[in-house]
Please model this.
Amino acid sequence: MAEMWINMGPQHPMTHGLWNLRIKVDGETVVDAEPEIGYLHRGYEKIMEVREFQKNVVLTDRLCYVSSITWSHCYCLACEAVMDVEPPPRAEYLRVITNELQRLASHLMWLAAYGPDLGLLTALLWALRERELFLDLLQLITGARMNQNFPRIGGVRNDAPHDFDKYCRKVIAHFRKKLGEHEKLFEQSKLFQMRTLGVGSISRKDAIDWGVTGPNLRACGAAIDLRKLDPYDAYPEIDFEPAVEHDGDSYSRYKVRVEEMKTSCSIIEQALAKMPDGPYRVKPPRRAEGEAFRRTEDSRGEALFYVIGDGDDRPYRVKIRSPVFSNIFAAPLMLRGNKVADVVAIMGSIDVCVGEMDK
Amino acid sequence: MSGHLIDLLGWSEAIAGFLLWLLSLPLALGNWIALQVGAPSPGPLTGVIGWVTGPDLVSFLGVIIAINLLLLWATAFHLLIIMWIERKMYSRLQDRRGIMIGLGSSEILRRILGPIPLLGRPFRRPSHLGTGFLQTVADGVKLFQKEVITPAKADRWMFHVAPVVIAASTLMLFVAIPWSDGFWIMGSYETHFINGTPQSVPVNPWGILVILAAFGIAPLAILIAGWASNNKYSLLGGMRAAAQLMAYEIPLVLSLIAVVVLSGTLDPFEFVRDQSRPLTIGGLTVPFLPNWYIFHPALVIAFVVFFITIIAEAERIPFDIPEAEAELVEGWTTEYSGMRFGIVFGFKWLRALAGAALIVIMFFGGWDGPVFTTLQVPNLATLGAGTVPLPVLFQEFWFTVKIYVVFIVFVWIGWSVPRIRIDQILNIGWRRLVPLSLLAILIAALAGGLNWL
Model:
């Protein structure tokens, strides 16, 4: 067969959202690939310039519906830096807990999507079943399953409800048992190893050069985790090690995320134990002048908000750095030379969220 | 061994005889009128009546009726049931209940039966708490209502022919598969001496070969469909089907040869007759076990190879790469719509069912079961005078149960593993299964030569 271009997207089961991956195939082998994005561009950065600082929190929730809290949290951190506000310690712990709950839910959503990518539809139902537990916890503390609108500039919206720590510990104990089942379904299956081991490798140098961050970078052997490297909130007081794998292939990316789920569980438990009493929010000023950026470890990599205030009650300019935006353009490096079937195994392991990518 | 319930050809000939008798009634009337008018005896239409009710036409029409009954049995009965089994089974694997549309979901039944006290209770409010059996029917109705689209740039003729070839070759499988000693079309009766007494038994000397040949046609049609659709996904899917066919037909037939070394025949009836004897290995009779080939240590490798290749032939996960929905949208079926899609998609289940039937015939003793219970019931033909035996646990029952069990294993495997990549599938086929099936032949020949079997 001659070489031909195939559009995988924007309407394709591989994409998990509205974007297009054009691949050039020679028979079954991928020769070249180029991602095309912009189908879901909503002009976030411009909209945020005409809304007040506080009102933007609800907007940043919608950047990625799978991982809302981590995004609005990052925005609140940046705004606090601009306004020179220090959130109370209890709020910092609550933020850590909700962030990690959201990270667990996000990684489970990724696991749920990765199974069907490889033809394993059972994984979808199993992972969504476990994700529901964490969504229930999030609902308990924030009142909503998704798009929680929970972090606030200067703290969080509300305190944890009565017995929240008890429920958390119960769910985590249950989840640790269930995660073993998932590992049996995935990594102990010879067929899963055949599909992912050594597939879509990217070197540590390439990954750093192309701006890959998050679990995808840690799968290449770089122990870069902003929760350790550039700690924010209560993370300095919590003892954990970021999960690192060394092969940079799809299997390592899978493995890093599964290990991260375990890490998140232990972070939540520590945070629950150490959480002090006290106020959960301080009142921030309405107007702000100055500029600042804050970066956090989002579920998918390094999220960054750069906020400029010009003394008005709205930001003069907001810049969002989306990890997926950078990760996805390193994908052709991983795709070249692999088979068509590997495209889903690789793109699925990168964990694409189109909402935050197109902004 | 006895106890088949259905004598397909006999019943069909009875139906054909009845229909032809009905057809001959007006002829007989005409003959009678002609006689009254003064035609010479025995009347001008006697020859026609004799031909219509004669044995030639009856057996001809009987075979046609038998074929239709068998196809109805395969599509209207088994296809619906195995689709339901698969959907319920994988739902349970996924920790959910699955499809639940049943009679209770029916608006019409709610209106009619709802007001009736007690009896109408399940129908009183629309509920999806049924068994889900009607969901498959509803899906079929939905597909019938959809538009059948032919892409503008498709090769129209080939695009239309491919589903026909797929459906025809799949149904051809069922013509060659016997369901019991009496429930078959392909074959004939021969007199065999069993324990010294002559007995009329069915034979079909090339049955298994016909089934395997019919299995080989569908991938060709898939290739045609993929090429004719003028769609890149379909093309890749069709090419994959062709590559997979080449890699898996060979170990399929080779592993069959290992079994043939033991059975000495390609006759499905003979397979089953041989397997219903008590198990004898190396001259020792094993108590309580029938001579199913799965129990023979020399045939274990052949069984494993055959099982894997049958899954590949049926294009089930992990071998469903021709229509890998995650990477190729819907593979070679992408451009098909409406009931044309329903046929090419639904007949995959029929091929899986035929594969399961083949496995059962070759390794699990076919319709040989532990008990064949018969009840003595009053003979209705003589208005209650005397009794006739009515099978309760009959051959068709055992055969169907075994097929469903094998099919459930297919489902179980299919929904717990990911799909394999094309090059890995070909590697498994050429580098693992072909040598293994050759080894199986060697072992079977050695065991047969040393008279261990």
